Amino acid sequence: MSEQGTAALQICLGLVLAPLLPGVINRVKALFAGRRGPPLLQSYYDLAKLLSKSSVTSRTTTWIFRAGPLVGLSTALVALSMLPWGGGRALASFEGDFILFVGLLGVGRFFTILAALDTGSAFEGMGASREAWFSALTEPALLLALIALARVTGELSLSGVLAGLGIGSLGGPAVFLAAAAAFLVFLAENARMPVDDPTTHLELTMIHEVMVLDHSGVDFAAITYGASVKLWVLGGFFAAMLVPKSGLWWFDLLAGLASLFGVALVTGVVESIMARVRLARVPQLLVAGIAMAALGLVLTLVR
Fold it and tell me: What is the pTM of this model?
């Protein structure tokens, strides 16, 4: 299959299978808790239910409130088109695209924060404030990790960087430090434990969920699906760093799928055996991610 065909297939699989990742995580958590848990396809049922409902919008909100879910979903979809999680080259690939990749995630988060502030709710403003603070720590960690990987591989595109990585790559410790930082970013960006609890109903402890309390219907479906795509994108990025590439498109695609669902399994285990850290400790955890990514970059400069 041609590179463009492989890239298009990866995007289609991501669009279809992204909502399955939260289902895998929830089933793993239910297994650890001794419960049956929701079905694997529960996210699809929830999306279908939300799409059948109309959105209710407060009269105090502006167009920003409606734009938040659409921009968040759009940036996640564009980021998906830039990530070759199953080997080969992405559909949108060019030199320096990893900077745009980080920027897209930031733009989506920025509009989500604006939409939360647009409601005028004290609770949503509290969640937006926490999200802005924590994102200011996750973005440098992700960008430093990408720069370190670019130094290791000598490539300036995300496709080239990920094609030259894998277990046993020449980067050695630098790659594993960048991967550890990327995993912390993965947990924080997707509101997973130990940074955030996606199942909590206590508004005083929410971060992401409290920002979307006023969204409903189609708007909330866009937020939910966008969160699944973002989970797929960042999980695929982390998995692609560690899985070696064979050059056979079908083998790399299967290995990419297996590694992505492996990341979901690991995430479920992490959420089952770890408690959420205190909010005051979350910045320390994220600064540790920055330190690991920076150390990985330093190692690439001195070798």
Answer: 0.94
